[in-house]
Amino acid sequence: MTGSLLKNTILPLALFAALALVPAYADVFDDRFVLLFFTRILVFAIVAISLDFILGLGAMVSFGHAAYIGFGAYAVAILSEHDIWEAWISFPLAVAAGGLFALITGAISLKTRGVYFIMITLAFGQMAYFTATSLSAYGGDDGLTMWGRSELFGTGLFTGDASFYYLVFGVLAAAYLLLRTFAASRFGRVLKGAKQSEPRLEAMGIDPYRYRLAAYVIAGMIASVAGALMANQSEFVSPAYMSWHRSGELIVMVILGGLGSLHGAILGTIAYMVLEEVLSGYSEHWRLVFGPLLILVVLYGRGGLMGLIPGQIGRQSRGEADQ
């Protein structure tokens, strides 16, 4: 068995199979907390793979990616405040809001590179955050409580814990397959080429800006879907969803799992949130322990947790990390 087969085929299948069994585990051991906890993990995993798509594939370090969680969450919550509960209305609106924001901010941000791109995405993210805090009609800084979950043509898909888990699981699987397909297509090859050398692409008559912008919008729309799911999962939305701290945590999740690997981002999300849950049970200063652990993984994993898999290190050193 080669390292590439293990990394690109066996590991994703095993990972999704294990996640699919979580409701069965929770039912057998009557552990509702595990089901709710892993539902939250899956929601963040959706955001993480959308960030990894632009960060690992296109080297776009967005420090405002959490803003799209807020757009999706507030779209659902605000509509519920006006007694609109149908998911076929709220979810498309959430995607449209996140996509429009990504299109406008991305068109401006992608004119810059490096630290300037990081700072401008941070600025746009904070603008969204402070806009949410100023919405006094919808809770302002205190957030907004939802008195129920969305509905889908009168079914209980959102209400049951197990059914909602499988809904989130299905969205994660669909997003993963979609982004993996993009990464393996000409679209993905152009993004990889732009990361290596933009002048070469331009010499071939390819404008990398349009491809980067399209990838940025796609990532924002997927993250907005996760935000809509998060609002339903917690039945509460807050401007804190959009803070730069949350964006930083998302970047840590992606780096922890391994840049350039979508299932690595899922693995990193699981590892981050499980470590957070375990360590925070011992001390409120859990980050003092988590920080050195992250440094050790980065130093010795040479590519996060995915770097520990045989065959991955050599590929990363050649800059050929696969999706």
From TrEMBL:
Protein name, entry field: Branched-chain amino acid ABC transporter permease
Keywords on record: Cell membrane, Membrane, Transmembrane, Transmembrane helix
Transmembrane segments: 36-55, 85-108, 115-138, 158-179, 213-231, 251-275, 287-309
Cellular compartments annotated: Cell membrane
Coiled coil residues, start to end: none
Lipid bilayer topology: Multi-pass membrane protein
Keyword Cell membrane applies: yes
